[in-house]
Amino acid sequence: MSKLDLSSVDPLDLPLSILEVGISGRLELITDAPNPRGSTFPLSAVPNGLPPYDVDLSFEVIEKYLADPGWLSIHDFDRSQRSFPRSKDVGSLYHMDISAPQTELSMERNAATGELRGISEVTIGHSSLSAQNSLSLRRPPGPPSQSVKGSTSNFPFWPGGMDEPTLEQITAVGDEEEALDFEKDLLTCPPGWKHGMNFKQPGGLQPPGILPFASLLGTLEDFTLGDSSEDEDDVKAKEKDKGAKTESLQRSSSLEELGVETVSKVAAPPPPPPPSEAPQEQWAIPLNSQSPVEDFYKRIPDLAFKHPFELDTFQKKAVQCLEAGSSVFIAAHTSAGKTVVAEYAIALSLKHMTRTIYTSPIKALSNQKFRDFRITFGDVGLITGDVQLYTGASCLIMTTEILRSMLYNGSDVIRDLEWVIFDEVHYINDAERGVVWEEVLIMLPEHVNIILLSATVPNTIEFADWIGRIKKRKIYVISTTKRPVPLEHYLYTGNSQKTQNQFFLLQDAFGTFQTKGYYAAVEAKKERSSKYSQTFGAKHPHGGGAGHDKGTWLSLIQSLRQRDALPVVVFTFSRTRCEQNATALTTVDLCTANEKSEIQTYYNKCLSRLRGGDRQLPQVLHMLDLLKRGIGIHHSGILPILKEVVEMLFSRGLVKILFATETFAMGVNMPARTVVFDSIRKHDGTNFRDLTPGEYIQMAGRAGRRGLDNTGMVIILCKSDVPEMSDLHKMMMGKPTQLHSQFRLTYSMILNLLRVEALRVEDMMKRSFAEARTQKDSKAHEQRIKVLTKTLGDMGDIDCSGDLADLYDYFVTVQELLCTREMLQKKVVESINGMKCLSVGRIIIIHTEYYPWVPGVILQVSSDATNRVYTTLVLCEKKQDGKTASVERGEKEDKMAPRPDDLLMGKVFRPEGPCDYKLLKLRSSEILMLTGKTLRVQADKVLDDAVRSQTPRFRNDPPGPAVSAVTQELSRLADLPPGSLASLCPVNDLQLKELELVEAVSRIKRLEGALRGFNCPNSPRFTSEYFRLEQRSQVMDELDRLRFLTSDQSLSLLPEYQQRINVLRILKYVDDGGAVQLKGRVACEVSSHELLVTELVLDGALSPLNPEEIAALLSCLVFQHKTQCEPRLTDTLKEGVKKVRELAERLALTQRECGLRESVEDFVAQYKFGLTEVVYEWARGMPFSEIMTLTDIQEGLIVRCVQRLDEACRDVRSAARLVGDATLCAKMDAASQLIKRDIVFAASLYTH
Question: Which residues cross the membrane (predicted)?
């Protein structure tokens, strides 16, 4: 301490004070703070408490030198800080990045020969474009690593048919808005708000006239300083001309309040003349597939691809369309030859040095097409979730989901794309995956041509018209119902050797339904049932046990073998049933020794790529035993490699009988001689139902081999009772299922579109097939809006001055009263009590065009196709010539505006002169009021008399007694004082206690009471101005309706979109302005279950786990089947499962809060953990044979789930890379490698 350099201190500043000790005057000097008051009077210790004490030296050392030593000189910056002098580089100030090239060299060639004519330098107009800021095809290509699948940071290419707004269009919009109304044309509702400000003036005051913007400019141009040369009359004339300018439409405060059109029952003026409708452009062009093509080879002398057979007529017409660069839609039966069109498109792309993409609904079909097209063309590639082969090929085979991802991610493959072939388009009806087809069709760029291949569907024109309209190109539709091999349909009732030939023709090769064959089958079934009862008692042989089914199969196979009707495909709608049927045929052997040897050799060759343990799997050994006897099984539970072996052996004719599920009908062209239906009922995931015509035709179409069979044979087994004739007729002769939109909103779609400012989700919804019918007339609606806007401007202002000051409020009150009465009356007549009251003899009141409160009596109640009809006798005036006057529209020249006496229940109508009657057929909506009065009428005699009076011979005869009695009673009621004819109260008399009806009754009373307070009905100008106001209101209502139809508010999915956007905002995937945030960009990397995967990644739930555990937990994303085995999980996995369910529940609750309908239980239940243990053990290296002991799930389903799990792992890896989680990224790579082994990822036989 002695070495410290302490500065000198003034003695007066030392911390010293004087302390008086005791009372004897003793003073002491203490080290304490001076007296704060600056007084020199000594401090006293007594009796004010204990005296102060001196601070301990150790405490001072700790506080001053240890706790805060920063003031010591050893911590001076000169002792610890070093400075590095900065070297000067003046030359860096002159550095400049090289700008992008503004020009490029263009080769000029002869279009016919390709000869180089010269080289010219051309300007690059868009040198600043990139995949991250432009949707143009002119942007430069991305890096080679993104050339195939693109990147989620890329913009998609601009969708075809969706026009970008040009400068001319923007200018045109400005010109249309030249006459801007600063009071009415300004928006009052901010975007996203439900209601805006209401600037209407109270008291019904008429707003001032329109001041067009153009007139302001004209005034400014004419304005001069100094004395005006115009007199007062000229100024007034100009003001009058300005006031007569057209008036623009007043906007509604919210589009949600539009769309309800009120039709008044009172004195409707003639509507404005309808505009001349613009001719609608025809986008779908049907071609006659029956008319021959005479000059085919003259038009196309050099075919791009020559088939070894003569093309059918529909194929030739399709080839002509392809040569012309047109899009086509081919609808034909299975095995009709649709693939020929696809092959020609591929050949054209090879010739043009462009690209073709062939899409299929399932991965297995993609593999099969890859093999077939590669054999034919060679330059063919394959892109699936786990395989990428020859991605630079001219023709690429892929699933529709892969193409959708490429379109959203801006793949450079799209640049060179000429054709996209959609196979099995009728798969768009699939509830889960149908939306993918619509997304792809909407997002395809303009330069891409479309080929649609589908089974026969009834609405091909409608579907093609939708595609043509959204892409703004013609779609040529070629439909054919012709089969290359006609089909004959049979009922089979045999079940033994004696009855094995009981085939009954149900539909012949010409398509005629044979009722004779049906009744013969029913009779044969009854005969056998009666014999069974006599032999074995009353027990009925229905139910079809295992022994009964085995007998049926044995007798059927034996009969088909004798008829040379093999091979046969048996469609069975249950995987378990397929296995049972095949296993039951232990005594059946359909192969020769040579065929057995060939099957054994081929089987061994195909399975040689498997490990030794995998070759000994029970399913592998069982399948070999079946195949060597000519029996095959094909369903999703079979291992993929075994399914491919079965398919190839079937195509070679070595499989004689194949038990398959419905998916086999969606494969490549593998026809059989015969098709058998084990049943015509299937479970569709909800309940059991009969096959639809489309499903039956698709599967039955596998019967008949072109060039080998004259007819194909289709057999329906009748194991128990014969199906009903009506069900069979509907299934076989009915129309196939129409193509229906399955468009739905997904978070992935929303986020992919939101990240591109130029694309809107609303535009995607507008262009969907679901909105096709409503958007079809959008152009006509826009034209109609222009005409009505002009009509509205020509009407001029309504004169509401003076005694008509309250006309506007009166009109609003009348319209509200009429609407409320109409709604109330509709509810009344549709209620049970109301329908009981509307019986014969009930006195009712109707409101005609010219006469209010016309009484009538119901004579008859009947029903047509849609409504109940009430035949009613009403009073009317009798003309001078004795003819009956009408109470309907058009018979009276002067119409009456509704006055309070007409609207309120006063004196009912009674003819002024001679009284006559009229019979009207009324619907419930035309009845104004039910009264409490009924008459005893002879309705039949009244109706007969009315019919008799229509005969010319009896036309002048007086009415009969029954009619006279009714008319006299109605006249008597009409003569009663006002209010005597009381109406039935819906609440008190009819006992209708619904809140809506009670409020309507109260509202009617309030409105009726307000009518007496208006003065405008007393004005002599009331009628004319009222009708003008009504006509103006009708035009405005029609304009509002049309604007609603052409706006986004009319979209059926808009409420759900707003709900999903709210979910994304709450979860911070997008901000309040709709910009995609980090979580949203992560979700774009995920192909399915994007919200849950994103939350798992960003919540850090996966990072602490090892790769095996992560793979096991992610299996819940891909496993959708039911299992009875409860998985045995480790504690870590149990915690992980709990965490996943908690996150799923949190997401579900957020969705429910935002209004989405899916329940929390359903959302959480979609994540099933039945394969968690299986995947965990598989990732740890357990052999597949041991894996099968852990679960009851079939082998094929396990393989499929693990393959899809690999795609999920890659999605999570991409998400982890985006957020910078290197640890999770490495773990996902490891997890993917752990599960990709052995039989689960054995290479496809079609690709190797």
Answer: none
Residues 924 and 815 in one domain: yes
Cβ atoms of residues 717 and 552 within 8 Å: yes
**Closest C-alpha to 661, from 575, 557, 553:** 575
For residues 854 and 917, what is the distance between their CA atoms, to the nearest angstrom? 11
Q: In whole angstroms, give the CA distance from residue 285 to residue 1214.
A: 45
Q: Do 613 and 1183 form a contact (C-beta atoms < 8 A)?
A: yes
Burial class, 113, CB count within 10 angstroms (exposed 0-12 / middle 13-18 / buried 19+): exposed
Q: Give 943-972 pLDDT, tens digit per residue.
A: 888 777 777 777 677 778 888 888 888 888
Domain count for the chain: 6
Global confidence as pTM: 0.77
Q: 843: which strand partners?
A: 857
For residue 1028, tell me if it sits in a domain: no
768 located within any domain: no
- Residue 259 scores a pLDDT above 60: no
Residues 6+ apart with CB under 8 A from 696: 677, 680, 731, 732
The Cα–Cα gap between 929 and 918 comes to: 19
Secondary structure element (H or E) that encloses residue 490, with its range: strand 487-492
Residue type, 120: S
- Angle, helices 339-352 vs 313-323, to 10°: value is 30
| Candidate from 203-217, 335-349, 603-617 with smallest mean pLDDT | 203-217
Q: Buried (b) or exposed (e) across 50-83, using 16+ Cβ within 10 A?
A: ebeeeeeeeeeeeeeeeeeeeeeeeeeeeeeeee
Half-sphere exposure of 16 (CA within 13 A, CB side): 10
Distance CA 1035, CA 788 (A): 7
User: Which tokens sit at 1097?
Assistant: 């990644």
Nearest in space to 1091 (alpha carbons), one of 1204, 1167, 1203: 1167
Amino acid at 1211: D
For the segment 530-588, what is each residue's pLDDT rounded down to a tens digit? 665 555 444 444 445 555 678 889 999 999 999 999 999 999 999 999 999 998 898 89
- Distance of CA 1084 to CAs 413, 729, 1088, Å? 20, 49, 10
User: Are both 504 and 460 inside the same structural domain?
Assistant: no
Amino acid at 81: Q
Q: How far is it between the farthest Cα atoms of the chain?
A: 153
From residue 440, alpha-carbon distances to 156, 408, 689 in Å are: 12, 9, 32
CATH, residue 299: 3.40.50.300
1006 and 868 in a common domain:
yes
The sheet with strand 17-21 has its strands ordered as 26-30, 17-21, 43-44
Distance of CA 951 to the CA centre of its chain: 59
- Neighbouring C-beta atoms of residue 1138, cutoff 10 Å: 10
- Give helix 434-443 / helix 460-471 axis angle, nearest 10°: 40
Q: Give the Cα separation of 108 and 891 in Å (integer).
A: 78
- Six token digits for residue 1020: 């002599």
- Say whether both 40 and 173 belong to one domain: no
Residues 1167, 1137 share a domain: yes
